[in-house]
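Subject: Interface between my chains keeps coming out wrong

I've been trying for a while to get a sensible model of this assembly. When I model each chain on its own everything looks fine, but I need the whole thing in one frame so I can look at the contacts. Pasting all components below, labels as-is. Any help appreciated, I'm running out of ideas.
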Amino acid sequence: MARDPARQTEKRDAKANAAEKAVYELAGEIEKDIVEALAEGDFGRVKDFVGSLHYADAADLLERLSPEERHLLVEVIRADFDPEILSELDDAVRDGIIEQLGIEEAAAAVAELDSDDAVQIIEELDEDEQKQLLEAIPAGDRTLIEASLAYPEDSAGRLMQRELVAVPTYWTVGETIDFMRRSAERADDAMPDIFYDIFVVDPTHKPVGSIPLSRLLRTTRPVPVTDILESEMKLIPAVMDQEEVAFLFRRRDLVSAPVVDDGGRLVGAITVDDVVDVIDEEHEEDIMRLGGVSEDDLYDAAVKTTRSRFSWLLVNLCTAILASVVIGYFEGTIDQIVALAILMPIVASMGGNAGTQTMTVAVRALAMKELTPTNAMRVIGKELLVGGINGVLFALLTGAVAWFWFGDAIIGLVIALAMIINLVVAGLAGTTIPLMLERSGIDPAVASSVLLTAITDIVGFAAFLGLAAWIIL
Amino acid sequence: MARDPARQTEKRDAKANAAEKAVYELAGEIEKDIVEALAEGDFGRVKDFVGSLHYADAADLLERLSPEERHLLVEVIRADFDPEILSELDDAVRDGIIEQLGIEEAAAAVAELDSDDAVQIIEELDEDEQKQLLEAIPAGDRTLIEASLAYPEDSAGRLMQRELVAVPTYWTVGETIDFMRRSAERADDAMPDIFYDIFVVDPTHKPVGSIPLSRLLRTTRPVPVTDILESEMKLIPAVMDQEEVAFLFRRRDLVSAPVVDDGGRLVGAITVDDVVDVIDEEHEEDIMRLGGVSEDDLYDAAVKTTRSRFSWLLVNLCTAILASVVIGYFEGTIDQIVALAILMPIVASMGGNAGTQTMTVAVRALAMKELTPTNAMRVIGKELLVGGINGVLFALLTGAVAWFWFGDAIIGLVIALAMIINLVVAGLAGTTIPLMLERSGIDPAVASSVLLTAITDIVGFAAFLGLAAWIIL
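Reply #2:
Try treating it as a single job with all components included. I did that and got this:
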């Protein structure tokens, strides 16, 4: 019997595809297999599976498991727990695992990491745990970590790696390469495993310039390093906020940059992989704050999540009551024309949505430093115009619907006028609120949406009911 | 008279600070100076100023100017226009400038860029302009650019750089370094200016492994490249979506990765700076879509912005009318108890906000691949619990307020019950809507919030008014 080669190829392709998928993200099947083996108590298979995973995938797996499964899995892989897994975990999950491992084991794991990753883990612990963990780390590593921890939270000093390559100004390319090769052969090699630039420093250890490795490699040995260095490199003060660092990396397409202390001396280097994490963090903060959540709480316990969301909802309850007070002011009007009660949410809702559109663009533009005092007036003017045009369009639409629905042209007119007013107000509030918050030093993402909907609700109800009272009654 | 040294230091510090600030972002003063010089017609000074700026800052400046000022500035710097500026501009602004420069000049500028930057500019043009521009580009560059453009939009093929360093498996470290040095001396050097990894390929040009430059530099000359290569490198198919590429870079802390064609042959390399742009783009998309905006339209003309925002508002008008229809169903009830009309927006508003909190976390978790089929049920369960707890808390609060306000315990009871129902529904809808959209292949960020508020509005009004009709009447 002839075999069907097409069929065979297909099968092989499917297998190749599955394998390829597994390369880029943790495949569902692998996850299922591990959970199954865990449930069956086949710990040998679990160990083999997890051992074959990249540490980022192993961290992902741990996050997705239920707390009970996670606890069990950690016990199973405890003996050969890859320290790198810790640096990839979500805070809530990592806390639990560090507790489970105990101080001694956790400290041993942290000590194996690069200084920047170690700092990133330790800074999230509470003070007591920090102290205990640091005490359990060997003195040499501890000093490096403590020096970084001395810099403010979210600063370049916390982000930087202490391990870097610095050479004096009087060296040649050849001497630099020989130095690096010799260091690689030594047991106490203090150079990072992967780096992208080397730094040239003067006798006081102040950076004079940087040299991308690709340039170093393509230059002949006798050339002095000073001939090929990039003197226009950006120095990052160790106290600089990490958001500024991210802005700089993004703006200048950097992969690494030197960090200097108060005296301008080279103390570390920041690499782009850490900056990508900062960018993600920043994004998360923006999107969460706009949605009224303090942080991504996917892995937090229900009680903690409830508590963190409560305060935002409480603020919203107050503004909602305020809007109701405005409605209450027109109790008599509604009592006479109940159609007003039916229609009034439309005006408020449209204002809220139009305002949210404008506000979203403004908050994002502020975060990306695109909206500045120079163009603020122009942007506000444009948003007023957009609000006006859309206001007129939706006034016609909504007015027609209301007229048709209640057979009353005056009600149509009232809702049309209220719509124009509220959409123009929405455009104005959507730009000015974030701008004013930014100017007062408050993150516009935190408070913009609550203020905005308070205004569009109140103006929406007041304009609609007020106009009705005035025109109809 | 003694000079005041403290005063002097302060002054010097202020100057140093200003200079330092200018390094990281375009300082307001420089911007002002340029605008002033432009208005005064002092074009020599304008040229000097702009010439001293980094191209990213020059692009920033152009974006912030009014359309008239921008036009004038482009004329002034036209003779020595830095092509790199084009790749840093917002689409709307770039379009205008390319039109102003004309096809010939624009093509000459684009031809000077790396292939990935050129592709990024050309792909945004409309078909006619694309054709004209491509025709004006020298044949060699054109072929490279057209090959990239043949890959789908937002694919790895569009993102990659064609320039890269690939060496055969039988070379040593020394041969590799010599090859790179020789190439650097040739006029037709086809290697990129900056790169981070070299790739080792077999005779069919399939990548066998990658070598980080730092490792190459630290290895002695006689070592074969196959001894130090990273064989577990991630191959990126040229058709892979850029979001997947970003996920991979982020997950594995990559700075560059090889791109392969259908046949597995090396065709280009993607570097992290382009991936950072993708991450920013992705985030912008998420945040804009959640806010009901199709894209960041800060630099678009008012008419274009109005049009793009109209459709979203139209959808919202429909759902708002639907909610009003629900209210209309209880016209009789409101007619008897006008207090209901006053209080009803509170229930709807709280549901909308609680649902938005949950939805924001869910949409972000889906985007970051943290929310998966494995943990979906657990997350939904948790959100129901959170909704229930907050529902009870806010039921007590709101019930008390309503009771006190209208002196009627029954109204307090009705609003309390409606609040619990709506917050639980909000928790359920906030998780299930994004999950269902994702499963149907729709970006959850696009449609989640409109569906969510439709549900929380309708349930909020229906529960409150329905309970009132049932309990009170």
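Reply #3:
Confirming on my end. The longest helix of chain A spans residues 373-406.
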